[in-house]
């Protein structure tokens, strides 16, 4: 019997999803020839670092859920176990009505006990929030927006003052447009027809005073942006940057990819393909071979945002500024900054690396409200400084700054998102040796993206095994 030829796998996209696919495929099939094709000149996707005042700091996601295993496990597998760290025990605040207040205990802004909202809501808003406790249990049929769900039970003021800033920080989206089943799945799972909204939140959260569990979040010394590069290096896959894949065609024995500039196209024939891409470029490539999936992907909108990182002399930052890990801003406040993270207070490694310099970051931009991002980098820095001065009195001149723009960086999980993803996956599964993964499907957090990548890798591995079985 003739041995099957060495399997060839193309991974389109060199972010953390593509890196995780390459790592999993090569771990299971060391004989596979895996090539990662990235259109940008660097790998990493939305995970990135930059040097600000001599400190290498994240300009994309700076943390990931530690209670989901995927990110921590992957970091350990690629030699970063000793660099996994957890944030300092400092809490965030809410900048609302001109005052900084402790961010109340909640699940994505929905409190288990509305009495903690006294002082944050108006008297009318608090009275309306209390109505949830005496209303009939929630019966959720189908999907609704997070905003509609919460407003119906606790009133619009809870949505505007608490839910919106929380969702804005995670999705750069709006509560009345984001799917409850996709964005607050843990809460929805407790809405079994026997609980009020507050009771469902309480059931989904650890009880007050309970023994502390493992840390919720983790990061990496030197930045989470280090993770994709470490994963790609450990995979042993060939990595090519600056290569745009423009075409995807099903062939009798696999797939043909057309890459490179139109005048000088490059053709790659492979046995299996994984598209680890955002929704729009994935849709363009799938338009021919899987038009149903392509049509569904075009319906996933994205939000653009910017991260403004600032470094200040430590002796010019008051102790009051460092009293928390940062603050969130309700959009009804009309501020440019939607949230600020005091990285120097949140991460010991950032503070130690600063050597007399304190690094913090501000985020700007929401879905369909990207006009603030039309300004120059200098103007964004000025806006961030103005909001910091108003919020915490930090009016010093920064010693360094950096602006990272993420155009179309965050997919929006609209009402019905889970059904849309199921339709995409069914359509793709009908075509042999093809898989999709990334933040557009099962979650925007790093562990969720890695989880989708591992599922895609398993599909490809199964296709390669079937190929081997059929070989003469």
UniProtKB/TrEMBL annotation:
It catalyses: coproporphyrinogen III + 3 O2 = coproporphyrin III + 3 H2O2. Involved in coproporphyrin-dependent heme b biosynthesis. Catalyzes the oxidation of coproporphyrinogen III to coproporphyrin III. Keywords: Cytoplasm, FAD, Flavoprotein, Heme biosynthesis, Oxidoreductase. It is an enzyme of class 1 (oxidoreductase). Pfam families: Amino_oxidase. The keyword Transmembrane does not apply. Residues 28-461 form the Amine oxidase domain. PANTHER family: PROTOPORPHYRINOGEN OXIDASE. Its EC number is 1.3.3.15. It comes from Marmoricola endophyticus. This is Coproporphyrinogen III oxidase. InterPro entries: Amino_oxidase, FAD/NAD-bd_sf, Protoporphyrinogen_oxidase, Zeta_carotene_desat/Oxidored. One of its GO terms (biological process) is heme biosynthetic process. Pathway: Porphyrin-containing compound metabolism; protoheme biosynthesis. GO terms for cellular component: cytoplasm. Belongs to the protoporphyrinogen/coproporphyrinogen oxidase family. Coproporphyrinogen III oxidase subfamily. One of its GO terms (molecular function) is oxygen-dependent protoporphyrinogen oxidase activity. It comes from the Bacteria.
């Amino acid at each position: 019997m003739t041995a099957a030829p060495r399997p060839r796998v193309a991974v389109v996209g060199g972010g953390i999803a593509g890196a995780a696919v390459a790592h999993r495929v090569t771990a299971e099939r060391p004989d596979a020839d895996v090539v990662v094709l990235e259109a940008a000149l660097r790998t990493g996707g939305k995970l990135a670092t930059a040097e600000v005042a001599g400190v290498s700091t994240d300009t994309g996601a700076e943390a990931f859920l530690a209670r989901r295993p995927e990110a921590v496990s992957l970091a350990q597998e690629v030699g970063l176990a000793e660099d996994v760290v957890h944030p300092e025990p400092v809490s965030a605040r809410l900048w609302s009505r001109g005052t900084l207040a402790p961010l109340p205990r909640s699940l994505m802004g929905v409190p288990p006990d509305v009495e903690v909202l006294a002082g944050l809501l108006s008297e009318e808003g608090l009275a309306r929030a209390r109505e949830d406790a005496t209303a009939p249990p929630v019966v959720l049929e189908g999907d609704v927006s997070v905003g509609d769900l919460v407003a119906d039970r606790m009133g619009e003021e809870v949505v505007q003052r608490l839910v919106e800033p929380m969702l804005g920080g995670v999705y750069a989206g709006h509560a009345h447009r984001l799917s409850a089943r996709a964005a607050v799945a843990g809460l929805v799972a407790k809405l079994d027809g026997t609980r009020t909204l507050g009771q469902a939140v309480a059931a989904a959260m650890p009880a007050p005073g309970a023994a502390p569990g493992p840390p919720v979040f983790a990061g990496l010394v030197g930045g989470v942006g280090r993770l994709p590069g470490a994963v790609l290096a450990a995979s042993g896959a060939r990595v090519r940057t600056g290569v745009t894949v423009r075409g995807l065609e099903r062939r009798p024995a696999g797939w043909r990819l057309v890459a490179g500039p139109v005048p000088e196209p490059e053709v790659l024939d492979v046995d299996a393909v994984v598209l680890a891409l955002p929704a729009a470029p994935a849709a363009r490539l799938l338009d021919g071979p899987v038009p149903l999936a392509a049509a569904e992907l075009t319906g996933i909108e994205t939000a653009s945002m910017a991260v403004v990182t600032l470094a200040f002399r430590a002796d010019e930052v008051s102790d009051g500024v460092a009293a928390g890990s940062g603050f969130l801003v309700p959009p009804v406040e009309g501020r440019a900054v939607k949230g600020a993270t005091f990285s120097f207070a949140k991460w010991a490694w950032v503070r130690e690396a600063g050597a007399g310099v304190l690094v913090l970051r501000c985020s700007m931009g929401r879905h369909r409200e990207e006009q603030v991002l039309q300004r120059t980098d200098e103007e964004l820095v000025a806006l961030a400084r103005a909001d910091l001065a108003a919020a915490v009195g930090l009016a010093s001149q920064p010693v360094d700054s950096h602006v990272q723009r993420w155009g179309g960086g965050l997919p929006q999980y609209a009402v019905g998102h889970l059904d849309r993803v199921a339709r995409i996956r069914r359509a793709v599964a009908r075509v042999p040796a093809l898989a999709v993964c990334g933040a557009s499907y099962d979650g925007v957090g790093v562990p969720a993206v890695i989880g989708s990548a591992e599922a895609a890798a398993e599909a490809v591995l199964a296709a390669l095994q079937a190929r081997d079985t059929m070989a003469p």
